[in-house]
Amino acid sequence: MNLKALAVASSLAFAAAILSQEAPDPKPQQDGERPDAIRKLSRRERKQRLEKLPVRHQEFANDVEPIMLPAELDMFLSLEKDSDRDAFADEFWRRRDHMNRTSGMFKDAYFQRLSLVKEQFKNVNSDRARLFLLHGPPVDVVRTNCARLLQPIEIWKYPRLPGLGHDARLMFYKPRHQTDYRLWNPVGGAVALADLLVAPDSVTQRGPDEPRARESVMLSASPYAYINQIQLSCTEGSEINAAITQMVQARIDLLKLFEPPELDQEDVRKMLRSVIIANPTAPKLTTEVSVAFPTKDGSRTDVQLMLLVPREQLSPAVAGGAEVYTIDVAGEVLRDGELWEKYRYRFDFPAETKAEKFPIVIDRLLRPAEYLSRVKVTDANTGAEAVVETPLNVPEIFTPETSGIPEPSGATGSRPVETTQAIPTVAQIKNEIVTEEPRLRIIPPNDEIVSGMQTIETMISGSSIKAVEFSMDGRKLAVRRAPPFALDFDFGVMPQMRRIRAVGLDDRDQPLTGDELTLNTGTDPFRVRIVSPRVAPRVSGQTRVEVDVSVPDGDELASLELYFNETRMATLFDEPFVQTIELPASEGAAYLRAVATLKDTTAPPVEDVVIINTPSYMEELNVHLIELPTTVIVNGKPTDKLTAASFKVLDEGQPVTIAKFDYVKDLPLSIGLAIDSSGSMLYRMQEAQKTGAQFFEKVMRKGDKGFIVAFDKEPQMVQKWSTKVSALHAGLAKLRAEESTALYDAIVYALYNFHGVRGQKALVLISDGKDTASKFTYEQTIEYARRTAVPIFGVGIGIRAGDADVKYKLDRLCRETGGATFYIDQARDLQKVYDAIEAELRSQYVLGFYPSPDVKPGSKWREVTVQVTEGKAKTIKGYFP
C-alpha cells in the first residue's frame, strides 16, 4: 500500500472509530446571560405575536431570523410601538456593522445574499440556504456521481469556517423521499452513515459486472467497511471521505454552524436600553409631570419636561460612607407615530439633597408642532421604573432668546466635564471688544478637547488692524490680510496641549495687539490665567490687568499676587481680579506674572506668565523641564532612602544635569482611577467600588487630589479632580456596569486630565478584558502615554491565560510609563494590589532635567535612562521634546 493510500485508510479508520462514540451534550445556555427585563417567549408565543405584527415588521423578522439571537427576537416581539420596532431595526443593523467592521454596509450585503438564496433554493429556511446566509457562498461545490451507493450529495468547500478550521468541507444529502438537501449529521455511528445509503432494495439490484461481495458489505453494520467501499467505488470517493472525516472530528462544532453570530452580551443589554419597554416585573415608581416652554433657539422652541420622583421610592448606592441616588432617563419624541428623536440622561443626587421629590428636568429643542413624549425613568440601583407618555403641543415663541435653563439644585446629570481654564465666552468677547481701540480676541473652540482640523476665528475692533498673523506653539503659520480673519489649524489626532496666537498688524506689518490661548490644558482645578493683556508688543504706564482664577471645590483662595518681572505690584484677595497697575517703561522684553495661593493646603502655588514689549522677531528656546517619576527597587521592595547623588540621568546616552530632585514625602500626590464599567464587570462592580473607596481612604493625604473616570462604550468623568475623599467615594457610588469596552479611549481621556499637573502623578487602570469600542488605536495610545509621562498601574481582572495579546499590550503600556501590571482573578483581590501600588507611590522620587538647547520642540522621541548606585530604577522610557 502506498503512502497516500495508507494516509486515507488511517483517516477513515479514525473517523469510523469516532462514529461509534456518543457526542457530549452541547454547553447549555446560561439563562443569567439574558437581559433580565425581557421574558423568554415560548415557540407558540413567538408565533402568535409575529402574526399580529404589521406586514413590514413580519418581513423584517422573517428575513433576519437566521442572524437574530433568540434574546433579540423576544425583545422585538415584546415591543409595543411601531416606532420602537423601527428603532430596534436600525439598532440591529448598527450592531452588526460594529461587530463586522462594515461601516454601514452589512445590511446591503446581507440582503444581496438573501436575494440569491431566494433564487437558488426552494426554501430560505433549508440547511443550504441558512448556511449561505450565515457564511456566504462556498468557493466550490462537488456533486456526487455514485447513485448506486449513495443518495444525492453536495459537498460545499470554504476557505475557513468557525470550528472546522481551514479548507473546510460540509456534506449535504437528499434524504429518501424528500426534495431538498439536509446537512449530514455525523452523530449516531452506523445509523448516521446509513442515512447516506440508497434504499437497500436498490443496492441488491446489482449490475452484471458488480462483484457479489458488495451486497454483504453494504448490508453489514461496519462503518469502516462502508467508508472504504465509497473510497473504492465512487468517482468522488476521496472528497466524500475527506468531508466525512472532517465533519466527524468537528461534530460538536457543526451544531453551531446555524447559530446566529455571537453578540457581546453588553450589546444585548444596550439594545434593551435603546427602546422604551416597561418591565412587568420591575417595582413601579410614581411621577408627577409638568411641561413648560420657557424660551426658544432660533426657529425651535425649548420644551422643558419636569418629572418629580419621590425620594422614598428610591434607594441610594453606598461607597465608603457616601450615598448617591442615581436615576436613568431614556426618552423618545414621536411625531405622527414615527420616531422623531431619542435621548438618554443620567442624574445623580447626593444624599445631602434635602428635597422629598427629586426633579428630573429634560430640555428638548423642537419645532412648533404636535408630538408625543415617552420617557422611561429608572432607579439605577433597584430597577424600579416608570414609563410616562405626555402629549406635546409645541407653540411658536416670540420672546427674546435666553442663555439657557439652570440645572435643578442637587442634580449633577450627565454633562461634559467643565472647562477648568477660564476661557471667555463669545458673548463676553463681544461686550469687551466694542471699542475703537485696536483689540483682537481669539474665539475659543466649542470643545474642551480639541483635535483634528479646527477653524480658529478672531474678533477685532478698531480700524488700524489690517492683517492678523497666526502661529501655533511658537511657529508662524500664516497671515490673513482680509476678513474673515480666521485660519484652519491641524491639531492632530491626539489631544496635545497647543498654544495658538493671533497678532493684529497695522498697514506696515507692525504688531499692535493680539491674543493667545492654550488649548487641551487638562482638567486640573487649580489654575490662573492672565486674560489681559495677553499679547502686548508695546505697553507701559497705567495698564489694566485682568486675571481669571479657578479654585478647587472646597478650597479657598489665600491671595493673588501680580508681578512685573520680579517686582510685586499688587496683591488681590477677592473677586473681581482686576487691577490697574503702573508699568514702567522698559527697553526690551519684560513679563507680567500672576501667582495664586490656596488657604490651608500643601498644594504649591500656581502661576501664569505673559511676555510684554517683545520685539517683532524673538526666538523661543525650549526650557521645558522634563520630569521623571522614578521608583528604585532594592531586594524586591521600593526604597526611599536615596539622595540626589545616588542618581544619574542619561538623555540619548548622554549624561545631563539633574535640575530637580524631590522626595516623595515632600510632594502632593495626584492620582487618577480609570475603572472599567462595561457590562462584563457586572458581577465585580460592587467589590470594585468597595475596594476603590478603601484605596482612596488609605492613600489620600492632605494636599493630594484624585479623579475617577469610568468607561464602557466611551469614557466619562464621574468625579473630577478633588482633594476630598468623600467626593471620590461619591463618584465610586455612581458606577454601573453596562455596554462595551473603550479601553484605549479611556486611557487617553484619563491621561488628558493630567495636563498641567506637576509633581507626583499616577493612573490606576482597572479592566477585565480587551478593547472592543475605541476610536483610538493601541499605537496612538502608547504615543500619547509617552507624551503625558504619567506612570500607569494596570490591573487585569479575570484575564485568561490564553489572552496573550491583551496581556502583552497592557504590560508594554505600563512598562513604558514606569508603572507596573497586576493580574488577579476576582475583584476582592484588588485590596492587596492597591497596597502594592501605594507602597510604590510612596517610595518614588521625581527627577527633573532641562534638555540641551539643540533639542528642538516637536522633534523625535528621545530615550531616557536612569542609573542608580544600588537597586534597579523604574521610570518612563523617554520623552517627546
| H/I helix tally | 21
Strand content: 25-35%
What structural class do the secondary elements suggest?
alpha+beta
Poorly predicted runs: 1-36, 200-221, 400-422, 617-621
The number of distinct β-strands equals 41
Overall shape: globular
Write out the strand line-up for the largest beta sheet, numbering strands in chain order.
34-33-32-35-36-37
The end-to-end distance, rounded to whole angstroms, is 72 Å
Helix content: 10-25%
Q: Tally the structural domains.
A: 5
Radius of gyration: 35 Å
Provide structural commentary:
The protein has 881 residues and is an alpha+beta fold. The chain folds into five domains: 1-23 and 49-263, no CATH class; 270-394, Immunoglobulins (Immunoglobulin-like), CATH 2.60.40; 416-512, Immunoglobulin-like (Sandwich), CATH 2.60.40; 524-615, Immunoglobulin-like (Sandwich); 666-843, von Willebrand factor, type A domain (Rossmann fold, 3-Layer(aba) Sandwich). Helix content is 25%, strand content 33%. It is built from 21 helices and 41 strands. The chain has a six-stranded mixed β-sheet with strand order 34-33-32-35-36-37, with helices on both faces. Strands 7, 8, 9, 11 and 12 form a five-stranded antiparallel β-sheet that branches. A hairpin with a 2-residue loop joins strand 8 (322-335) and strand 9 (338-350). Helix 16 (685-699) packs antiparallel against helix 17 (725-733), helix 16 (685-699) runs parallel beside helix 21 and helix 18 (743-752) packs parallel to helix 19. The longest helix has 19 residues, at 82-100. It is globular. It starts with a helix and ends with a strand. The model is unreliable at 1-36, 200-221, 400-422 and 617-621 (pLDDT under 50).
